[in-house]
Amino acid sequence: MTRPVLLVVEDDAGLARQLRWAYEAYEVVVAPDRAAALEAVRQHRPAVVTLDLGLPPDPDGTTEGFATLHAILAQAPTTKVVVASGHGARESALRAVEDGAWDFYAKPIDIDTLGLIVGRAFHVHALEAENRRLVGQERPGFGGLLYAAPEMAAVARQLERVARADVSVMLLGASGTGKELLARGLHDSGARRMGEFVAINCAAIPETLLEAELFGYEKGAFTGAVRTVAGKIEQAAGGTLFLDEIGDVPLPLQVKLLRFLQERVIERIGGRKAIAVDTRVVCATHRDVDAMVADGRFRDDLYYRLAEIVVRIPALRERTGDAALLAKAFVARFAPTLNPVVTGLSADARAAIDAHGWPGNVRELENRVKRAVIMADGRHVTAADLDLEPAAADLDLRAAREDADRRAIGRALAQADGNIAGASRLLGVSRPTLYDLLKSYDLHA
Ligand SMILES: Nc1ncnc2c1ncn2[C@@H]1O[C@H](COP(=O)(O)OP(=O)(O)OP(=O)(O)O)[C@@H](O)[C@H]1O
């Protein structure tokens, strides 16, 4: 069985050697500086990294160590980085943990203690990977939410905690980030889940009708009010009222909403009696409500009633790895009914999904995948089916050159019937040069 890779970022060669001997259970890869560390992360994808904060060119400080920490986490966010702090450098170790390091240990190194920390880091990494795999198999988390990104895991944890508390929640996020899904999640995990979840999109209803939709009306309240109708707020009694696009509610109606939130009673339009309504209120908007409050377009007293807890939902492009995971899940969801031949995504589709910016977030992804599943000719959905630009090829210059060399040599040899002299003439290089190239690329004439 292959041993898991432990990357040791350490400029002290003696210490690095000592660690290599101490940890037989791992394949210890040593990197003496940031560049080597990043190359090793790219090549080995280690689950765990130990990082000395004092790296050259700043071996007595921590700047280079922190820069390395940030770069490793940017490249491989799920990696567990264990930071080494020198004498009296506890503050920097704690700061490193705040910045995303998994744990720290004090120098001089105690092999057994560090071994325990590293062992635990591997264990937790494996558990998390398993969890991501399960989620990837459409085992949804909070509210049917699919994610692997740590950014979304934090949101889900926050909402789980908030769901049980009787507080108002404001969800802030761009269109299609899953705000309604999360609002439903709050309802389903909350104390009023036996009641109804009633959603109203305040931006989709003309201002003149919005009041009637929300508060209802009595028979004869206005022309056309031929019978008494309960509004959405009343319908949500005992359940959850989801006010989507709350930032689009006009000021006069904001006053009426505030009154309802303060007194927990409503009056239907044309009605004279106050009706008590007990409902949980969750709202959402893609607008910058803080700015709206600042310039008077949104009442601050209403804001404070609605936003006891504010949760920001990251855009899809900010969720590391989630676009690919969701795309896979949506293919699995749509293919059985829409095009059962389709079983997955092609490599170019996966690369294009990774490279796209997803301005329409999860909704855009869902729609593109749905359409692509219908359009796909073969077993795999391609970038073209998704109507996405194929991603730029790997930008590794050496690999690109080698690839071009190999192809040119192959064609020259074919044209010259395998004759080295002829092929070298066609390629414009000397015979010894061609021999060298054949050898280094492991090609045969
Ligand atoms: N993390 C997720 N996992 C699975 N499905 C998701 C996720 N996020 C969003 N969706 C799906 O994407 C679509 C859009 O989500 P939703 O309607 O909740 O977004 P929204 O933020 O409320 O958008 P808008 O502001 O435009 O109303 C829905 O079909 C929803 O089920």
TrEMBL record:
Alphabetical list of Pfam families matching this protein: AAA_lid_14, HTH_8, Response_reg, Sigma54_activat
This protein's record includes keyword Glycosyltransferase: no
Leader sequence residues: none
Domain annotation Sigma-54 factor interaction: ranges: 145-374
Domain Response regulatory: 5-122
CDD domains from the UniProt entry: AAA
Protein name from the UniProt record: Two-component system, NtrC family, response regulator
Organism: Sphingomonas rubra
